[in-house]
Input
Amino acid sequence: MAVEPLPERVSQLIKEAKLELSPSFTKLVDETISSIKKVIGKIPDDIQVTEDEAPGFVRDVGADKVEFKFRKPKSIETGGSYSIGYIVKPDVNVDILMRLPKECFHEKDYLNHRYHAKRFLYLCIIKKYLKSSPLLSKVEWSCIQNEARKPILVIYPASEVAKVHNFSVRIIPTATSLFSIPKLNAMRNNVRSVNQDSGSVATPKYNSSILEDMFIEEFTELMKGIFHEWKELGNALVLMKIWARHRSALYSHDCLNGYLITVLLSYLVTKSSGGFFNKSMNAMQIFRVTLDFVANSKSWEKGLVFQAQGDHQTVKAELKERKQCLRSFPLVICDQSANFNLAFRISKSSFAELQAEASVTLDCIQKCRDNGFEEVFLTKCDFPAMYDYCMRLNLKGNSSVSASGYCGDDECWRMCEAKVHSLLLQGLSDRAKLVRVIWRNWPKEYHVDDGFSSLDKEPLLIGVALGSLEKAFRLVDIGPNAEHKEEAAKFRKFWGEKAELRRFKDGTIAESTVWECKQWERHLIIKKITEHVLSRHLSLPKESIAVTADQLDFSLCYGDADPISFTGGLLEAYEVLSKRLRLLDDIPLRISSVQPLDPAFRYTSVFPPEPHPLAGGKGLIPKSKKVAPTCIQPVDVMIQLEGSGNWPMDEVATEKTKAAFILKIGESLQGHWGMSCITTEDGVDVLLSGYAFRLKILHERGLSLVKKLGHQAKRVSSVDKKLFLRSQHSSMINGLQGRYPIYGPVVRLAKRWAASHLFSACLGSEAIELLVAYLFLNPLPFHAPSSRITGFLRFLRFLSEYDWNFSPLVIDINGDLTADDATEINEYFMSSRRADEQSHNKLSPAMFLATTYDKSSEAWTASSPTPLELKRLAAYARSSANLLTRLIVENDSHRWECLFRTPLNNYDAVILLHRDRLVYPQHLLFPSEIREGTCVARGNASKDFFPFLGPKDMKRNLGTMKSKLMVDFDPLQCYLVDLEASSVDRFLKGGFPNTFNLWCDSLGGDAIGITWTKPTSKKRDREDNSKDVKDVLKAVGEAGKGFVRSIHLLKAPRLGN
Output
């Protein structure tokens, strides 16, 4: 049951990820390359190649003088990961470097994209002949690092090798010694169309694009020599690629790729870096050293330079060239000549994120269990999970993107990325900690022959990570002082009509922007700013800007407001009640403390109680309200009395004494302040300011017994124990909500999701709060979420991926668990698992949640979810997480509600309830309907209960209206209790004891799911079995007469052995 030690897990990961170069695979590679060489060898020389081979491409790169006579390539050699023996799945491709013949080019073809055009036309001829080979199944276009002007050929062989899927060979042209290198240095202009009136403009990106082809063979040979017979270095390369690929924002055209990772490791081996590695180091040590270098090295400021072999003094000309190169690019990796920067595509923002991610990964290794193995190598850190706000820009057909042509120094899509990044940095200012813009605009199976006009179909992705929420959600941005004319004019030009001159409290008159919204809408401020800035400066309609911010708010609101807005009034009423309780002096023992227990007080209730006009106060119903609820949702409040030695020792007598105190407290509140109170033995419901407060007493002896006896607290009153646990939980969650304001909305979404999929009975409110708390307290490899949708996605993924069978989940909210506590928790966990193994029972608890107040997981998950329920939960969470991920990165605005629609055909039978008899019909998200299966029962709605006081009731006197109010009445819960108790026993005892499980939505659902618990006997034939099942379901309907609308049988129980 113990987790494997780290070295074994790392070795297993490398073994699974690295492609084994088996004889059969090597044979397939050799045969494929041989076939390619044969086809190319048969292409006749002197074919006249013109732009007619690809007129669209030649037109869009803006080239001229592209005609040439075909000559066979000078050489074809393997390169890339295959050449050093470390291909990492699932991308199984072999690169072959095809050296272009010098005879096909003129010495000035480095100008004005002529090289790029001829390069592509040369590949077109190759492709035409390769397509005729029967040994090759498919030949298609791809490109190098999303650079459309540098396509490559991808060839799929007709034959396959077992366990190797989607194998391909990529033909990458090289241009060794094709042009004069000084003509392509970073300070020269080689694209005349980008020159401005003021003079010549350097084209460093364009020049580097050509130099890349000229130097790729040289660096490939260098890396082959370094990786030769160094197994642990190769294994470290595998780990680095796994790490980077799990972080999709890093593994992109403007940051890392497999080639650059190999270059980086090669640099750290060489003496020029100081030799960071030695051959005694294992793969994990090399991995850590590499990340530390990425995150913390000062060498990046100077640039990484591969020194020449032997003694070599850097001459002044080379030093000057290197400095020029540094000025042109944010990051430099080059050889000593500084002729070519291998990192020319890396942007400043992507490198900053790379350094931040490397630093976070080092924290994972240092702080997380098992050296952070799961967080570093197994956790998916994609766009939706990494960023607090994800945005999509639909730029299809937007002429401004390519207004200056598709290709200048850089491609228009990269320039658009830079412009959007700059706009958002300025617009969001200190609200955003990080802004990431990526446009992966090369679609699959793209026909680049036709040109670039269709390369805007894919959306541009933006990720925004917030800093302080206080800054991120502020309502006013203060700009320059009105006296500073130039700065004020720039401010007004940027913000347009949103800019306004305002006088502030300190007397300052300054430009400003105001983002007016209600308190519960502040998470939309980032969306409003983004939409305004991008609409204004990119001339985009708002329909083309999709910001993930409020798409799930529909699940928490009804009407035009979020009921969380009622919490302020609830807290005010609670403060009044708390003060009055402490002032009571006519009860035998004074009240020493008052503590709220309900989730509504800690902002984690999906639907906090709405103030009721008849609950306390004047009892006047506003004329604007045509109806009022019949039921009032109470909120629990715990009180403690001052100490006394006169309490009885007997548990029953103690409870009776507490009941007497409750009655007396109710009388005192009525006598002193005329407050309406409803008293029972279980507690007193105090009606105040529209709310119902249910008071419960915690007995001091019960509290001390719980503290002293810990897990042996069975002698303690179960009521006191539960109250103590709830009070501890409430205090801790309250503190957590204060530290992380976004925690509450994430919990509410999680609760709504669980209820919507009918998991209310098996995953309690407190358990969900703890699960979400863990994500905020242990966010690595992320930062704590700062938006509700990101937090919700992480919750779904965590619920589906955590290893519940073999690992306890420890939630240390206040950071006060010691090593001894951790040992004790582990002993409880192991004891629970051993007990289940010995008795062959189901795991209990299946979801082990340990806290400082509950180290044995008895409080919230002792009996549920069961292993089967947890398996179902994880499956639903996985499906929802996948859907939510797609919704964030794709453009499908109509499917968000599917996250909260549960498929009723996943149940064996379904009970549909009368919607107009639900206690809170307004909480219902989607009405349920069944069109499958057999309807076995139907019923009319009862006339004894209505969820609202109608217009006729409103006309009656106040006393009559108040008599119709019910506190804590919920027909759904009453019905479920009846079903699980004895109401249908007479129907079940004859044939199906404990026949079914019930699945419900306690937050307003109108459907109850039924699943059969075990197969029936084979002796019973199917017809009788079906008949008996229908009898059971009819009994279930009879138990809910007046509340049940219909019952549908979808699947009969399976026959057993």
User: Anything to note?
Assistant: The longest helix spans residues 204-227. Residues 708-714, 986-993 have pLDDT under 50 and may be disordered.
